[in-house]
Each structure stands twice: as C-alpha cells, then as structure tokens.
Amino acid sequence: MDERRRTTADPPALATVRERLDELVSPIDRTETLPVSTAVDRTVAAPVVARRPVPGFDQAARDGVAVRAADTEGTTDRDPVALSLAERPDDGTAAGIEPGDGIRVDAGRPLPEGADAVVALEAVDAPGTGLSTVADTELTVTAPVEPSEGVRAAGADVAVDEAVLVAGDRVGPSDPALCTAVGRTRLEVCQRPTVGIVPVGGGLTGGDPDPGEVVETDGTTVAEFVERAGGKVVLRDPVESESYALRPAVERDLTKDLIVTVGGTGAGESDRIVGVVERLGEVLVDGVAADPAGTTALSVVRERPVLSVPGDPVAAFVATTRLVAPAVARLAGREPPEPRTLGAELGAPVESERGIESVHPVALEGDRRGTAVPTARPVADEPLSTLARADGWVAVEPERGRLAAGETVSVERWEASI
C-alpha cells in the first residue's frame, strides 16, 4: 500500500471525500452562444425551442396515390373504385386534386392540395405501377383508406414552440441536425469550467528529458479525464517540490473553477504540496482510506477547491476517476457517467488491507468477457506498463480484505471511465 499522510487516525473513504467535494462545487452560471455545429458535447444552458415545424408541410408517408379518403369509402378488391389520374408536375411540386381524382406521390413529398390520404401502391391499379389494366388517365383503388392514413402531418415530428433540448441536456452528435431543421442554428450553452492542472515534482519535464529527468505524464492523464468530463484544461509546466515554486503555482490558478495538483502528496522530504496549501487556505482532507490514492488531499483556498492527487500513475488514475472527473462534470452541469462494468471470474487471488478500499488493475483474457486476471503487484514497480496492460480494475471493499481465485468479480472498464 502507498504511504499516506494522515491528519486523523481514521481517514475518510473515497465516497466520503466525494460528498465533501460535491458540497464545494456547483454548476457554473457562465454561458456562451455557439454555432450549433460546434456545440456537440456541451451542456445546454436554456431551452432550445423550435421556430418551425418538422416536417414543415403535410407530406406523403409512403409511395402511393394521394386521394380524398371519402372517394375510397366502401372499396374492395372485388368492387374497386375508379378515379381519374391527375397529372403530376414534372418539377415534383404538389398539384391539387378534385373530388374523384388521384395523383402519384413519393414518400416525403408534399401532399397535394385537396388530398387527405395516400393509398399504398399495393392497393392501386394505375399506369406505371406494374401490370396495369386501366387507361392512362384512370386508376382503380382496391382498398379504402381513412383520413390522414399514409400522411405525415406538418409538425408531426416537432411542433412550433416545442422544446427539442432543455437546460442541462448534453448536445449529442445528432442534435445539430435536429436544431438546424427547427431553425435553431446557434445554441446557448454553459461555458466549460476551467481547471488548472499543476504537476509537482523535482526532475520532471514536459519535453524531451535531459539525463536524470523524467517525462511528466500524470498531468496529461488527468487533463484527458477533465476534458472528457466537460472541463477546459490549463495544463501547467511541472513545478519543483519547493515552497517558493509551489505557492505561486497554486495562486496563479485561483482564477480557475478547480485546481488539481498532481504529485507531491506523499510523506517524503520533497512532498510539500499539502503544507503549502495549508498555509494558503484550509485542508479539509489529508489522506483517504484507499489503496492506491491514499495520499489524496482536498483543500479550499480563497473559496476555490484544490484537489491534490498522488503522482503515481495508477493512484492518479484512481483519484481522478473517483474525484476529479465527477467534480468537473458537476461544475459543467452534467451527470457524471456511470462506470461500465462486467462480471468476470478472478484468475488469481487478490490480497488487500482490511479497513480501506483497494483497487487492483486487471487484464481480461480471451474474449474479454471471461477470466479477469490481476496484473503483477505491486503496481508501483512498473506503473505505466500496468496501466497499458490492464483493461480495468476490481475494487475490493474495506471489509473484504482478500478475494480468492475463482470468485466472480465486477470489473470496471477503464475506457468507459474516460
């Protein structure tokens, strides 16, 4: 288990920390207006009301013959009704019909004036419909139709003043087409909450490393979670684990809606982020009952929440999926997505410390629905490759302590978490 700084003898569970974090964040009230084509994945700030109906006119719902329903009353295949075949304009526009007329129409085309139903081609004998036995100017109908049968009325899909999206909805990939159809080409959406991400640690670099330097990767992972949760990321260059560097790094991002520091939360001499934040504000949580991610901290500085997550890749992954991403989603005015899980048979035993929630990366064998096999432990030995090899994780509740090989477990899939 990773080392954990504890300000109390009984650190809170991750779920408890999330509840405290929920009390600190609420949907931001800043909005902006965007072209609908660029609004996908944004949160709607105000109802989107149709300015025009869909469809915009009464139209044929099927290929057939437009008629007056009253002209087909009592019709049977043994006693068909004969109608005059009206001429269809070459340009496909809707022509009118008189009583006793019928006119060929294609699905989706305007219903001719005077018609109130469309007879299916199967119930019509007319020129151009197959083996016709009638004159070029006549048609026969072998089945009656009711008014509106075979017709899609104007506004049947969307009526004028109907809300196609409401506040809090997330704009999906198909919504721009619908909004354009109803005359709404610009949408008022919530601004994305801003999140400052500050990687912490000596010897870290965001570019090509010099001898003795390490490429910073955890901040990039956190940034991906934040973006997918609806946030706007400002990913800072790594800062040294010294007070003179940490303090201005935190203060610089106090204009953001949320600050996430990555690394510097352990018990080592260079792990100073919690102490620095404590001098700037109030530390609410300093250590959680979780492995990994046990050194996670939650603070408030000048009314801004600050989440400090561990620098170990797996620990940062856990803290970000359980705390950071839900907080960003809440700020963005959307519900955090529920994790996608599947049942699997554990292929090897898992040992955990009682009293804390532990998370164990696992790989899924075969069709990825069969046996869930834990990757090598401890994960801190090769953390990046562990993340790359694993398909998800198994969470062990604090009261369990150990899972035996062969047990049926619930695997939380990582690709669904981000």
Automatic annotation (TrEMBL):
* Gene Ontology CC entries for this record: cytoplasm
Q: What does the record give as its pathway?
A: Cofactor biosynthesis; molybdopterin biosynthesis
State if Cell wall biogenesis/degradation is listed as a keyword.
no
- Molecular function terms from GO: molybdopterin molybdotransferase activity
Q: Superkingdom of this entry's organism?
A: Archaea
Residues in coiled coil: none
Presence of keyword Transmembrane: no
Q: Name one GO biological process term.
A: Mo-molybdopterin cofactor biosynthetic process
Q: Which UniProt keywords apply?
A: Molybdenum cofactor biosynthesis, Transferase
Task: Identify the SMART domains for this entry.
Answer: MoCF_biosynth
Instruction: Enumerate the spans annotated as MoaB/Mog domain.
Output: 196-330
Q: Which PANTHER family match?
A: MOLYBDOPTERIN BIOSYNTHESIS PROTEIN, MOLYBDOPTERIN BIOSYNTHESIS PROTEIN MJ0666-RELATED
**Protein's UniProt name:** Molybdopterin molybdotransferase MoeA
